[in-house]
Amino acid sequence: MSTTRQHPPGDLGRESQGAGEDAGAGAASPGPAERQWHTLSLRGTPGIVPTARDFARQALHEWGWLPASSADGRAAAEDVLLVVSELVTNACLHADGPEEIRIACTAKVLRVEVVDSGAGQPAPRTPHRAGRPGGHGMFIVQRLCLDWGVLRVPGRSGKTVWAELAAPA
């Protein structure tokens, strides 16, 4: 887990657009053919978590992750949807709600980014206590993902919390 690297091993960091720039709600962002970005504005959206999950599910269908042909494929897609839920919920609870969700996919890695206006630093609860209610979101993200972190743009408020998951084999 890293909270300082801007672009981890999957290197799906945004190149053509700065963090926080909107590529248009639900539109795929421009970029190399192997990189497919989808962006959705969540500002003022009712039912933010189900909306974000539905958005992610649709992207997974477009990229061929769903319907999955194997148990491993179904598990990988469910992991993505769980990470989306946890990141969006975390923004709702600790950062006055998410502003935007972005999802990118290559043949090997899927990246989820949730943009919010909060100043806090997400971190897994330490020590993690499985029987204790609440506080499991970032622990779950840490366990399911190849890597995750926080991107801040100098001179701008808020942050982008990102997580990367391995594509199904």
Describe this entry's structure for a reader.
The structure is a single chain. The chain has helices at residues 48-62, 71-94, 137-144; strands at residues 27-29, 36-41, 98-105, 109-116, 147-151, 159-166. It has 169 residues and is an alpha+beta fold. Strands 1-2-3-4-6-5 form a 6-stranded antiparallel β-sheet, covered by helices on one side. A hairpin with a 3-residue loop joins β3 (98-105) and β4 (109-116). The radius of gyration is 15 Å and the shape is globular. The chain starts with 26 loop residues before the first strand and ends with a strand.
Query: How big a fraction of the residues is strand?
Result: 15-25%
Main sheet: which strands, in order across? 1-2-3-4-6-5
Q: State the distance separating the first and last CA atoms.
A: 22 Å
What share of the residues lie within helices? 25-40%
Report mean pLDDT, rounded to a whole number.
82
Q: Can you count the helices? A: 3
The radius of gyration is 15 Å
Order of helices and strands: EEHHEEHEE
Q: How many strand elements?
A: 6
Given helix and strand content, the structural type is: alpha+beta
| Largest sheet geometry | 6 strands, antiparallel
The 3D shape can be described as globular
Low-confidence stretches: 1-9, 15-33
